[in-house]
Write a structure and sequence with these properties.
This protein has one domain. It contains 2 helices and no strands. Helix 1 runs antiparallel to helix 2. It is elongated and about 50 Å long. Helix content is 89%, strand content 0%. The protein is mainly α and 57 residues long.
Length: 57
């Protein structure tokens, strides 16, 4: 799976929890949003390292 597809899949998977947390005040959904955002941060770091490695050849 391409790196972009992984990011998109992660973000799309969080959509429902964002709505539940921000629109309905569901605290458990907020926890899932926080975890998903941490996963996104880690994935972004992996991609940054990968891009740098490819760039440096």
């Amino acid at each position: 799976m391409s790196q972009y597809a992984r990011v998109k899949e992660l973000v799309d998977g969080l959509e429902g929890d964002f709505e539940k947390f921000y629109d309905k005040g569901n605290q458990a959904a907020g926890t899932r949003v926080r975890k998903g955002m941490q996963d996104l941060k880690n994935l972004a770091q992996e991609i940054r390292v990968d891009v740098q490695n490819i760039k440096n050849g």
